[in-house]
Known about the structure:
Blueprint: E1 2-5, E2 10-12, H1 21-24, E3 31-36, E4 41-44, E5 49-55, E6 58-62, E7 68-72, E8 86-87, E9 94-95, E10 100-104, H2 106-111, E11 118-122, E12 130-131, E13 138-139, E14 144-148
Antiparallel strand pairs: 1-14, 2-3, 2-13, 3-11, 4-10, 5-6, 5-9, 6-7, 7-11, 8-10, 12-14
InterPro entries: Dup_hybrid_motif, PTS_EIIA_1_perm, PTS_EIIA_component
Subcellular location: Cytoplasm
GO molecular function, one term: kinase activity
Amino acid sequence: MTTVTSPLAGRAIGLAAVPDPVFSGAMVGPGTAIDPVREASDAFSPVDGVVVSLHPHAFVVVDSDGHGVLTHLGIDTVQLNGEGFELLVNKGDTVTRGQGVVRWDPAAVEAAGRSPICPVVALEATADSLTGLREAGEVRAGDELFGWQ
């Protein structure tokens, strides 16, 4: 069982509330989303594992069970071309849960006309393989978002 924790502080809102049909329709995979606190902060690894994909606006960490978790920092933020994002690790690095992966500022993303909402997605998972899915309420970085069997 993989425990996936929040990469950010904010409010859990669930994938259905994400203003992007690819995420809200769970086409990428099941999970939840965080409406982050509007202050510059690090986005943390939600699991222990290896960074297999790393972009300024998104990263994937795969744990020892082969579970890949996508953290997407904001919606349509790829269009910002890395502006306002700072990578703290490299692709291929082994990271621990709670380790900073990308430093960013949700308020700056919002000021640039993009949504700062952050999907946290279990890649290649089925909806029934997730337990205890947090889709409402305040969360701190490191709080459990869901379990993955």
